[in-house]
Every structure is written in structure tokens, then in C-alpha cells.
Design brief:
Layout (H helix, E strand, L loop, with lengths): L2 H14 L10 H14 L15 H4 L24 E6 L2 E2 L12 E5 L7 H4 L4 H5 L7 H9 L4 E5 L7 E6 L6 E10 L4 E7 L5 E10 L4 E8 L6 E10 L4 E9 L3 E10 L5 E11 L3 E10 L5 E11 L3 E10 L6 E11 L5 E10 L4 E10 L3 H8 L5 H17 L5 H19 L1
Parallel strand pairs: 1-5, 4-6, 5-7, 6-8, 7-9, 8-10, 9-11, 10-12, 11-13, 12-14, 13-15, 14-16, 15-17, 16-18, 17-19
Antiparallel strand pairs: 1-2, 3-4
Helix pairs in contact: 2-6, 7-8, 8-9
């Protein structure tokens, strides 16, 4: 069977397993997303941006089963922080486990609400649709069409504490689709945290609109259920002098694909996107990033570090597009992997496409093993080999972790990395 027909058949099979929510303010956007999806079809292994990552288990009609890991003996990630907690179990809002959604400087609503939320209507599906060109992102269109829950966060001031989205995995074959919309007003600032495995298969989309001089910090930790699968998307549009910083730590997960699409539409804006992953054995992790500079004097940074062993696979696909007229662009991209054995692999596709002449853009990608001289230095001073390797691993991912502005969040992330390494060494 020809690939285009196979894509369409699999797309219709997937659609037949879903029910689109009816009515409400988001219905027109859902219909448009469904039309986009049918036109492009769900991803296939022959698609250019899926050649490193097999999409079949993300697109099948049924979610592959994933065992639920008992983490009752662990302290929750960010659990010691004062934060507003919003909990989802297998993609369903858990009111009993969540905090009251009232917080100064921010308005929080549910996606399922029938009330017409005008500001969200102007964003829902809009940024996702813009992000479909020049690279198609069909799983995001699927999300916009069929997401049954999520939060709508309108940041009007400076909330006193972070908003923490907690995702619990409860059923072995759960298939969750969540869609969040975040709007940050001019001069407003907030921090969004995300943690948890979410479901056996998780499709999440987050659309972020940041007005001039607005700031959004985002940090997430994906794990720990190893058999889980996830496809996530962040679509961010930045106004003049705005700031967006996002960091992701991924530990475990048989398949994870995180896509980030950033568009600069206002001058003097800044976007930093960073990530670190720790993979052991049957582990495939894909970071796909596309940043478009369409304004003057904007800065973007992409910093990604992957630690892989026992046959794990890491993928990085990152592109910086500088449009005509986007002068004084500063674009930086680095992707590096630390391979702890000869069976693991790192696949990278860094890209620059520049149509302005007054820019400073660079990209680099490296892959290698632990430096034996440094290892010898530590061991000669009495550090056991396993502990020495862990110290060097933490140092390797430090550049990515340091992209987090809040030092308390940095310490939390470093602690989780150390705990993961300690479990593997034990």
C-alpha cells in the first residue's frame, strides 16, 4: 500500500476511536483542526521530521499498555514548594486532589467550561495552526480537535507562587489528551510547573501568548513510569520585550517526543528552551524545536543534553529560521549527548535558515563518552568509579539546568538527577 493511502487509513482508524467534544466556544477551532488533520494525515515513519522516531505507537487506535509504577515511597517533585496544585489523573481533572483555583494575579478556568472565554478563543488552536507551517505537526492538530480537558490560565499580574500541573497515571491503558492555553499580559509574570507520567499514552498541547514585557517561566519533569509514551507540543508567540524560558527533565519513558515551536513577533524579546534527559535501556527521547525570528534584536537559546546507556536512543531536531528584516538576531543552539556505552545512539539534525544579514547565529552538536582523564583524576583522589561517573554526568547536564532562572528549581532538578543516577548505580 502506498504511504499516502496508508497514512489516511491510519488517520481515519484513529479518528474512529475518538469522540469530539460538542458545543462550547472552542467548537469552531476544533472543526478547523480536524480539517487540518485530515488534510495532512497522522505522521508516518517516512515523513522527514519523523525519520528518527517511529510514530506508530503514538497514532494507533488503542494505547499500548503501560504498567503503573508505585512511587508512594518517593517525595513528590516540587512537593516542598509553596505552589497552587492542579491535578489530572489519566487526563481527567481531579478536583479533590487539586487546590482552590483562586490566586491573585491570575485567572484559571477549565477547558471544558461552556462559558465563552473570549481571550482563550483568540488563542485556542490559533498558535497551533500557525505552527503547522513550514513543518506539519499532525499530533498537535489531533489534540486541538479532541482534547477533553485542560486549563486556561490568564496571567494579569505577578502571582505569589507557581502554578503546578500534576499528572498522575492510574490505568494501564489510559489514553489522555490535554490542551492548556496560557496568556500573559503586558508586564505580568508567572511560573508554570509540570510533573508526572500522565497516562499510558499522553498527547498534550500548550499554547502560550506573551504580550509585550510579559514573562513566563516553565519547568517540567517527565517520568517515572518507564513504559509510558508521550507526545507534547508547546506553541509560544512572543511580543516586544517579552521573555519565555522553558526547561524539561525527562527520566524514563519508552518513547517521548517533545516539540517546541516559538515565534518572535515583537522586537527585543528573549526565548530560552532547554532540556536534559536520562535514558537507560528501552528508551527513545526526541526533542524537536523550531524557532522563528520575525522581529528585530531578539535572542533565542536552545540547550539540550542527553545521557544515554544500555542501548537508549536520543534525538534532537532543532531549527532557527531568521526571516528577512529580523536584523540583530542572536540565535544559539547546542545539542550534546553523553554515551555511557557503545550500544546507545544519538541522532541530531541541527539547522539554520537565515534571510537577514546582521545576525549572530550558531549551532553545534557533539556526542561522546565520559572523559577518561577526568575520570582518572577523580578516582585517583579516592572517588569510587560509579560515584565519579555520576558527578561527571551531573556536570555534563549543568549547562541545560542552569537555564532555569530560579535557583530553588535548579536544586530540585539536580536532586532528581542525582536520585535517578543513584538508583541505577544501586
Amino acid at each position: 500500500m502506498a504511504a499516502p493511502q496508508l497514512k489516511q487509513d491510519r488517520t481515519e482508524e484513529r479518528l474512529a476511536s475518538l469522540a469530539m467534544p460538542e458545543g462550547g466556544w472552542a467548537e469552531p477551532a476544533r472543526a478547523e483542526a480536524l480539517a487540518r488533520l485530515r488534510k495532512m494525515g497522522l505522521p508516518h515513519a517516512r515523513d522527514e521530521y519523523w525519520k528518527f522516531t517511529r510514530p506508530d505507537t503514538l497514532t494507533g487506535a488503542e494505547a499500548p499498555a503501560a504498567a503503573v509504577l508505585d512511587t508512594s515511597d518517593e517525595s513528590p517533585v516540587f512537593g516542598e514548594m509553596d505552589r497552587l496544585k492542579i491535578v489530572f489523573v489519566d487526563g481527567v481533572f481531579d478536583a479533590a486532589a487539586s487546590d482552590d483555583l483562586s490566586l491573585e494575579g491570575v485567572q484559571i478556568d477549565r477547558l471544558e467550561t461552556r462559558a465563552d472565554i473570549h481571550w482563550a478563543r483568540d488563542i485556542y488552536g490559533v498558535l497551533e495552526a500557525r505552527g503547522q507551517s513550514p513543518v506539519e505537526r499532525p499530533l498537535a492538530a489531533l489534540n486541538t480537535a479532541f482534547a477533553t480537558d485542560g486549563v486556561l490560565i490568564h496571567v494579569t499580574g505577578k502571582p505569589s507562587k507557581p502554578i503546578h500541573l500534576v499528572y498522575h497515571h492510574g490505568a494501564e491503558q489510559s489514553d489522555a489528551i490535554l490542551h492548556h492555553v496560557i496568556k500573559v499580559d503586558a508586564g505580568a509574570e508567572a511560573t508554570i510547573l509540570e510533573t508526572g507520567p500522565a497516562a499510558a499514552r499522553f498527547n498534550k498541547c500548550m499554547e502560550v501568548e506573551i504580550a509585550g514585557t510579559g514573562t513566563l517561566h516553565h519547568a517540567r519533569v517527565q517520568g517515572r513510569d518507564h513504559e509510558r509514551r508521550a507526545a507534547t507540543h508547546i506553541f509560544a508567540r512572543l511580543g516586544a520585550e517579552s521573555t519565555f524560558k522553558s526547561f524539561t527533565l525527562t527520566a524514563n519513558g519508552v518513547l517521548t517526543r517533545n516539540e517546541v515551536v516559538v515565534e518572535f513577533t515583537g522586537d527585543d524579546a528573549l526565548a530560552h528552551v532547554a532540556g536534559a534527559c536520562l535514558g537507560d535501556g528501552d528508551f527513545h527521547h526526541d526533542d524537536t524545536v523550531f524557532i522563528t525570528h520575525d522581529a528585530v534584536n531578539c535572542e533565542s537559546r536552545q540547550v539540550f543534553k542527553k545521557v544515554l546507556r544500555n542501548g537508549a536512543t536520543g534525538v534532537f531536531q532543532g531549527k532557527i529560521l531568521v526571516k528577512e528584516g529580523a536584523q540583530k538576531t542572536d540565535g544559539y543552539q547546542i545539542s550534546q549527548s553523553l554515551l555511557l556505552d557503545e550500544d546507545s545512539q544519538f541522532l541530531a539534525k541541527p539547522e539554520l535558515e537565515i534571510y537577514a544579514d546582521d545576525v549572530a547565529c550558531s549551532h553545534g552538536s557533539t556526542s561522546g563518552a565520559i572523559d577518561e582523564d577526568s575520570l582518572f583524576y577523580l578516582r585517583a583522589r579516592g572517588v569510587p568509579r560509579g560515584m565519579a561517573e555520576d558527578l561527571m554526568t551531573i556536570a555534563f547536564i549543568a549547562e541545560a539546568v542552569q537555564e532555569i532562572e530560579d535557583e530553588a528549581l535548579q536544586e530540585e532538578i539536580n536532586g532528581r538527577v542525582a536520585a535517578w543516577l543513584d538508583r541505577r548505580r544501586g
